[in-house]
């Protein structure tokens, strides 16, 4: 067995060619857009009384998770692009935060789908079923499930000896990419991760699918064309987010390892680590009149306060 390594080197998404430097600049712009968009969404929901409903309560937590997720990946990627390595402990912490946030978002999206199902299918009991206490339990459960998954995988991944190559063929510490460098048999653990990922993805996705199937049935029974239109507008935003996030995650984690290529994994990972956090605020705000109204009120309030000064 060789000398145990103390740090890793990312091969990353980019080289230092002019084209890749341009793409790196685009990535940093996406990062800033995600920070400002999600930060603005959290601010709007907190300062606007008419947005203090379960749907926006969940949306504010989704924005926080997206903000933290992209902040876990992109700044570290930028440092690695400029400087080149990450410590063993730093890699473990990135695994912990990444899996906590992605796992939590899986369950939060499922709870958001259930919230829309109750709102559309049983509006008279909505305030009772989706009480403040229930909403907090759902958000806490999402964080707890994500944290347990993150802790288990981070601890087990770091328990293996790493004494070969230091080069991770990825742009962040993704568990399958890190395990390729272990100088021990990881096949049993990789099988466990595969089963765990299927459960973490399929259980929430089953709730989402069942919720939207029942929503579709309820919408088709509606006599009001305006009610139908409003229901479809609200749910289509959530479905767009679910499709982006779950589609990329399933392609990455639910395929057998024999069908994986490092280049393909890196490209697909960009969707749920960068593109989805950037697009979520846009998806929810562009087709949402209540969010647009809250933004106008906030801008008007800022303009009035400037004029008074």
Automatic annotation (TrEMBL):
Q: What is its main location?
A: membrane
Q: Which molecular-function annotation in GO is an example for this chain?
A: G protein-coupled receptor activity
Q: Which UniProt keywords apply?
A: Cell membrane, G-protein coupled receptor, Membrane, Olfaction, Receptor, Sensory transduction, Transducer, Transmembrane, Transmembrane helix
Quote the cellular component terms of the Gene Ontology held in the record: plasma membrane
Q: Which Gene3D superfamilies match?
A: Rhodopsin 7-helix transmembrane proteins (1.20.1070.10)
Where does this protein reside within or beyond the cell?
Answer: Cell membrane
Q: Which residues cross the membrane?
A: 20-44, 56-75, 95-114, 134-156, 192-219, 231-255, 267-286
Q: Which residues form the G-protein coupled receptors family 1 profile domain?
A: 37-284
Q: What does this protein do?
A: Putative odorant or sperm cell receptor.
Q: Which family does it belong to?
A: Belongs to the G-protein coupled receptor 1 family.
Write the protein's name: Olfactory receptor
Query: What organism is recorded for this protein?
Result: Equus asinus (Donkey)
Phylogenetic lineage: Eukaryota, Metazoa, Chordata, Craniata, Vertebrata
């Amino acid at each position: 067995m060789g000398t145990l390594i103390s740090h890793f080197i990312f091969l990353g998404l980019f080289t230092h060619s002019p084209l890749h430097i341009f793409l790196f600049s685009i990535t940093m712009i996406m990062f800033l857009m995600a920070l400002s968009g999600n930060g603005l969404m959290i601010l709007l929901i907190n300062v606007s009384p008419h947005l203090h409903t379960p749907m926006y309560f969940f949306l504010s937590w989704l924005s926080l998770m997206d903000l933290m997720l992209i902040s876990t990946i992109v700044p570290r990627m930028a440092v690695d692009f400029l400087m080149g390595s990450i410590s063993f402990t730093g890699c473990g912490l990135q695994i912990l935060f990444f899996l906590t946030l992605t796992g939590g978002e899986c369950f939060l999206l499922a709870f958001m789908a259930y919230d829309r199902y109750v709102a559309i299918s049983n509006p008279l009991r909505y305030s009772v079923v989706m009480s403040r206490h229930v909403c907090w339990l759902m958000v806490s459960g999402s964080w707890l499930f994500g944290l347990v998954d993150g802790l288990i995988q981070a601890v087990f991944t770091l328990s293996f000896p790493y004494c070969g190559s230091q080069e991770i063929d990825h742009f962040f510490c993704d568990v399958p990419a890190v395990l390729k460098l272990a100088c021990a048999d990881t096949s049993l653990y990789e099988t466990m991760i595969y089963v765990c990922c299927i459960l973490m993805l399929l259980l929430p996705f089953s709730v989402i699918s069942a919720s939207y199937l029942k929503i579709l049935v309820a919408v088709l029974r509606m006599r009001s064309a305006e009610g139908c239109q409003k229901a479809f507008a609200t749910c289509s935003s959530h479905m767009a987010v679910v499709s982006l996030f779950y589609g990329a995650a399933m392609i990455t984690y639910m395929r057998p390892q024999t069908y994986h290529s490092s280049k393909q994994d890196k490209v697909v990972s960009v969707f749920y680590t960068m593109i989805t956090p950037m697009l979520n605020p846009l998806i929810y705000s562009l087709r949402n009149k209540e969010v647009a109204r809250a933004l106008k009120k906030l801008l008007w309030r800022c303009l009035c306060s400037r004029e008074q000064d």
